[in-house]
Amino acid sequence: MNFPVQAITLDLDDTLWPFAPIGARIDQVLHTWMLEHSPATAEMYPVAAMRELRERSFRDNPHLHYDLSGLRRLTLREALENSGASLDLLEPAYEAFYAARNQVECYPDAIDALARIAARVPVAAVSNGNADLERIGLAHHFAFQLGSREHGAAKPAASIFHAACERLGVAPTHVLHVGDHMDMDVVGAMEAGLRGCWINREAHTWTHPSLQPDLQFDTLTGLADWLDANPGAARA
């Protein structure tokens, strides 16, 4: 399939890097931090209990699902309060979390493929997560980063895709959104009028009853190769 692509919007977690190892590291880093700075909190909330508290906070606060940083602070605040610790520890604990959150290990194909893609068309990061591309060291590949917290709504809301297109100065029909999640990334983007590319690293089955992705690859290299093979499709 060949169609014009004037810009790309790109998901981050589980598209450029796997999130599961990051989540496991965060759990351990926070527990170690609490052991040093608030032993009572660490005792009341070992790793499994802190994870359960975080999951409950997510379930109980759907109005904050666009703001994962806000939800993390809410979880840390509750843990500190319940264990009798000072809330002066809230922001230092959050910073310990955030440092670990931005220690990412990209998929083996991702950085080279990202550089190849960004050399052809402008790329904007559009994510529901709270990664910081500056901290990670990948911001130079992107025109900008648009997070759901900054925007005020999370994918698959059409508004976040449209806001990215507006900042790119490109009509949605000429923007290709690339991501791993069938609904939040591909279906959400296509229903907002963008093209959709599914990065399906785990060989999942596509289950949407009526839409099919415009493109599908098992690595980001597949997309870079497609752009190379279709030079007329990529219009900077």
UniProtKB/TrEMBL annotation:
InterPro entries: HAD-like_sf, HAD-SF_hydro_IA, HAD_sf, S-2-haloacid_dehalogenase. Coiled coil: none annotated. The keyword Plastid does not apply. It comes from the Bacteria. One of its GO terms (molecular function) is hydrolase activity. The keyword Hydrolase applies. Keywords: Hydrolase. PANTHER family: HALOACID DEHALOGENASE, TYPE II (AFU_ORTHOLOGUE AFUA_2G07750)-RELATED, HYDROLASE, HALOACID DELAHOGENASE-RELATED. This is HAD-IA family hydrolase.
